Every structure is written in C-alpha cells, then in structure tokens.
Amino acid sequence: MADNVYRVTELVGSSQVSLQEAIQGAVRRASSTLREVSWFEVSGIRGHVADGAVAHFQVTVKVGFTIEDTKD
After folding, report:
1. For the CA atoms of the chain, what is the radius of gyration?
2. pLDDT tens digits along 7-55
C-alpha cells in the first residue's frame, strides 16, 4: 500500500438551524465536487445576530481529500 498524500481546501458552511447542519452542508457539498474526501476540521465559528438572537451560523471547515496516484 502506497503512502497517501492529501490536499486541504477551506470552505464556509452556513445554516439558520445549527452549527452541525452548517458543518454537514459544507462536507456534503465538498463531497459532491471532490473525490476521496476523508476528513474535516472546524477552524472557525461565527454567526449573525438579529434582534438579540442568533439568526445564522457560519462554520469555516478545512476538508482533506486524498490525491489520486498517477499512472506510471
């Protein structure tokens, strides 16, 4: 088995419902456009406040995916 090499990309997921939904949305979207997504890391959390209450969650997520082997 060859050693794996990973690439990391950063994106922001958002949700009006929860942090978890913001994370899942970001990972789901990344997985639909990138192959071999294998891990994520939350690197930032922020949100929008309206009328004294949390109105929107934003989560910065680093997503790691495996770089495919090249054919020799």
Report:
1. 15
2. 999 999 999 999 999 999 999 999 999 988 999 999 999 999 999 999 9
Closest residue by Cα to residue 36 from 62, 60, 67, 11: 67
Nearest to 27 by CA among 47, 42, 17: 42
Q: Which residues does residue 37 pair with via DSSP β-bridges, in sequence order?
A: 65
Q: What stretches of the chain adopt beta strand conformation (E)?
A: 6-15, 37-50, 53-66
Ramachandran region, residue 2 (left: φ > 0; alpha: ψ -120 to 50; beta: rest):
beta
* 14 beta partners: 58
For residue 1, pLDDT over 90 is answered with: no
| Token couple for 68 | 């495919």
Q: Report whether 40 contacts 23 (CB < 8 A).
A: yes
Predicted TM-score of the model (pTM): 0.83
